[in-house]
Amino acid sequence: MDDGGGSVAAWEAVRLLHRLGLRPRRTVRVVLWTNEENGLRGANAYRDRYADQLDGHVLAMESDGGVFKPSGFGFTGSDEAYEIVRQVGTLLERIEAGTINRGGGGADIGPIMREGVPGMGLQVDGSRYFWYHHTDADTIDKLDPEEMARCVAAMAVMAYVVADLPESLPRE
């Protein structure tokens, strides 16, 4: 849950796009951070390495709450970008993952969000998260394949549609 599930969901979302032959206008990149809880070293290193390219980053998406049943995303960005992302969220209503709330992101994408990159975090039913979080019980057998599939679908749809928009999400 913390957070191998989110890492696998991100990879599977990109694999799904590839398997379906979907090629958006912009690159979709999966980055697996390290060392979040000891100073965000992976997130800060990414920000530093790509500092001169952050203007080209359209959106950062994080999944760090486990891969339980998704309800949607929390989004941080301009009002205009929020409205666009909210419209994209309607595509996820059939799997009950279309709610887009204000305020979202996460610790790992925080460093690039502070540089102006819009950010969002996958929101899931967290009622079971702390049953496993930072315990020896946090193992793959706790993952529900259907909940995982919904997380993958939500991330794939959001990543693809935003990456394929005619124009980038507007910044503040």
Topology at a glance:
Elements: H1 4-19, H2 41-49, E1 60-62, E2 70-76, H3 79-89, E3 99-102, H4 110-113, E4 119-124, H5 129-132, H6 145-164
What does this protein look like?
- The chain is an alpha/beta fold and 172 residues long.
- The model has no long low-confidence stretch (mean pLDDT 94).
- The chain has a 4-stranded mixed sheet.
- Helix 3 links the parallel strand 2 and strand 3 (99-102).
- The protein has 6 helices and 4 strands.
- 37% of the residues are buried.
Quick structural overview:
This protein is of the alpha/beta class and 172 residues long. It contains 6 helices and 4 strands. The chain has one domain: Zn peptidases (Aminopeptidase).
Any key phrases for this structure?
single chain; about 170 residues; alpha/beta; Aminopeptidase; four-stranded mixed beta sheet; 4 strands; about 10% strand; globular
Mean pLDDT: 94
User: What's the arrangement of strands in the largest beta sheet?
Assistant: 1-4-2-3
CATH architecture: 3-Layer(aba) Sandwich
Instruction: Supply Rg.
Output: 15 Å
Instruction: Give the domain tally.
Output: 1
CATH topology, anyone?
A: Aminopeptidase
Specify the overall morphology: globular
